[in-house]
Write a structure and sequence with these properties.
alpha+beta; Beta-lactamase; 2 domains; three-stranded mixed beta sheet; 17 strands; 29% helix; globular; Beta-lactam/transpept-like
Amino acid sequence: MAQLKVDVEPEEVGFDPKRLERVVSHFRRYVDDGKLAGWTVAVARRGRVALHAHHGLADVEADRPVGDDTIWRIYSMTKPITSVAVLMLYERGLLELTDPVSRYLPAFADLRVYRSGSAANPGTAPASEPMRIWHLLTHTSGLTYGWHHAHAVDEVYRAKGFEFGAPRGMDLAAACDAWAGLPLLFEPGTEWNYSVATDVLGRIVEVVSGQRLDRFFAEEVFAPLGMDDTAFHVAADEVERLAALYMRNPEGGLLRNTAMGDAATREPTFLSGGGGLVSTAADYHQFTQMLARGGELDGVRLLSPHTVAFMTRNHLPGGADLEQFGRPISSESYNQGVGFGLGVSVVVDASAGKVLTHEGEYAWGGLASTAFYVDPAAEVTAMFFTQLLPSGAYPIRSQLRALVNQALVD
């Protein structure tokens, strides 16, 4: 089992300890003010953990505090893991990033693009460009999410039962076939739109590897990295470790979301490579350290450092950022000065976003306000775990960056 402990004095890795303590004191107020139930934060530099702290409750109703072993729904922080799995197969020569998706999933051979009309009667035309694997990795595929509520195609997804996840009883293969039959939002490669693309990548991992996605993750990613608590659901004898899921109460405080929260306690039919995993801070720290060290951790190499560098550079055409190239929707990230790599956001102009960070920082977050980032220039990794739907309710992610970077003094 992965362990996460402070193993260096902040001064030894260039942090002012009093300034670093601001991270804790600031986010403590979120709990004390009733905005969050509880949280875990961890900050490391040069592979050494300088800060690891908890505050508040994992389960308010049970009066259970957040602990080292708390299990969190990481939702879209699953996406970088799926993207790494695809790149592992790419390194083995088993697929090309330019391959048409239809080479592995034939239902994607005859895609149609939305042109006009309502969700009930959309006008479409044949796609002029095949959807390719790199389109999926960069969210430029033309796919979408039902929960965006921004376009007629989003409404089409909801009408077919795709708002969060898939209709009850539908597996990943069937979901991909269904998505292939829905209109694309745009021609592949022409815009950025956050979508089910990474779920499609999960299905490609299954087809190429010959293994179910949960098995591939367990054998090829989690076991090598010691991520024993990361899976698509929480085992029955570990449910007491699972944090409860909350939403903001319009009248103040928090409301427990049992319907979505309890899904993590059941083995899913639909294995979502886009948002299905639960994990711990210790486990996800292993994953971030593997990336920060160029694809290797404790003698185990998942990717070449050249592949990690390629993954974490901006792949949007013309070096554009998400503000220029993306649809105006919630993307679980600020968009100015931020491009997109292969499964992660990438800062291309730190001044444009007006958030204290550095060019080259890569990151992503999850629906329940979890977040991580790796900052190669500062040699820093940081993670924040809580369980508040939706993300973006508070500026947690930008504040985390500012608070960590203001504590760096070397």
